[in-house]
Amino acid sequence: MRAAPLTLIDAGAGPDATSRLAARLDLQIAEPPGDPAGSYLATANGLGFRCPRESGDGTLTVVSDLLAAGDRRGAVRVGGGLPLLARAVGLDRDVRTVVDATAGLGRDAATLVALGATVTLIERDPVLADLLEDALLRAQAAAPEFAARANLRRGDALALLAELTPAPDVILLDPMFPERGKRALPKQDLQLFRAWLGPGDAGEIVELLELARSCARRRVVVKRPPRVKPVAPGAVACLEGPRVRFDVYAPATPTTRNANPT
Ligand SMILES: C[S@@+](CC[C@H](N)C(=O)[O-])C[C@H]1O[C@@H](n2cnc3c(N)ncnc32)[C@H](O)[C@@H]1O
């Protein structure tokens, strides 16, 4: 994705913090406004990334904040119980280890970590992975017990999933879909993913689901907007809320721990 080396702009962090970030990420510091096609920002809240809006009208800036995402979204209860995501993943059924194979800005992963799961975040886009790594470092300083349950792997889940040992209980997939109108993401995040990463590839998503089903011990969960077609037939359960749906698939080779996901 990164066409040219990205630069870092001091956007409120101050010269010392900006220099430290530049050294850690091996980036050149640039004067504002920086490259309109995409720039890292040293903000007062950590590493940010700014890119053009998909409408071409101005820019948007995002920072990954795992602790805030975990607090806010961990607290959202559907029907008085666990959040829909946590129930889809099976945190109420003794699921402990989750791989978020399409980690993005880490919001879903943070929700699961906040609720006690140990989560491996896989992200293949180098910019998103940098934002996640920065968020994890900040979480390590502020809440070490939270950060200890989150671990980042950079790279393509299609290559990394099969290497994971021991196999995770659950694999969560929230890829970019080819169709427009995906509303399961906050507007700002959705714009970043669309503008920076572009649409997903339907064939690759099916491949990822098949691979995930051959690697997960208990279940694979695919996050989708409500009322759109499932990625593949054969979901054993479907949990739908007003803004999001989770399709639950059984592992391809059921193990003795393959609990009924419903
Ligand atoms: C829609 S976003 C995920 C948002 C995430 N659920 C969150 O809470 O922030 C999709 C992300 O998956 C990543 N991705 C897509 N396919 C991938 C793959 N095969 N391996 C690793 N990352 C992948 C993209 O780079 C993008 O950052």
Descriptive report:
The structure is a single chain. The protein is α/β, with parallel strands linked by helices and 262 residues long. The chain has two domains: 7-63, S-adenosyl-L-methionine-dependent methyltransferases; 66-249, 3-Layer(aba) Sandwich (Rossmann fold). It has nine helices and twelve strands. The chain has helices at residues 15-25, 66-74, 84-89, 107-114, 126-142, 144-147, 157-160, 187-197, 202-215, and strands at 7-11, 28-29, 39-43, 46-52, 59-63, 97-100, 118-123, 150-154, 170-173, 219-224, 237-240, 245-249. The strands form two sheets. A seven-stranded mixed sheet has the order 8-7-6-9-10-12-11, with helices on both faces. It has a five-stranded mixed sheet with strand order 2-1-3-4-5. The protein is globular, with a radius of gyration of 18 Å. 40% of the residues are buried. The model has no long low-confidence stretch (mean pLDDT 89). Residues 101-108, 122-125, 128, 156-158, 174-176, 185, 193, 197, 208 line the site of S-adenosylmethionine.
Features:
262 residues; alpha/beta; S-adenosyl-L-methionine-dependent methyltransferases; Rossmann fold; 2 domains; 7-stranded mixed β-sheet; 5-stranded mixed β-sheet; 32% helix; binds S-adenosylmethionine
By DSSP, the count of extended strands is 12
Tell me the strand order in the biggest sheet: 8-7-6-9-10-12-11
Radius of gyration: 18 Å
Query: Given the helix and strand composition, which structural class is it?
Result: alpha/beta
Which second-level CATH architecture of the largest domain applies?
3-Layer(aba) Sandwich
Please give the domain count.
2
- At the fourth level of CATH, the homologous superfamily of the largest domain is Vaccinia Virus protein VP39
**Proportion of strand residues:** 15-25%
Helix content: 25-40%
CATH topological fold name of the largest domain? Rossmann fold
Q: How many distinct helices?
A: 9
The biggest sheet, with number of strands, parallel, antiparallel or mixed sense and barrel status, is: 7 strands, mixed
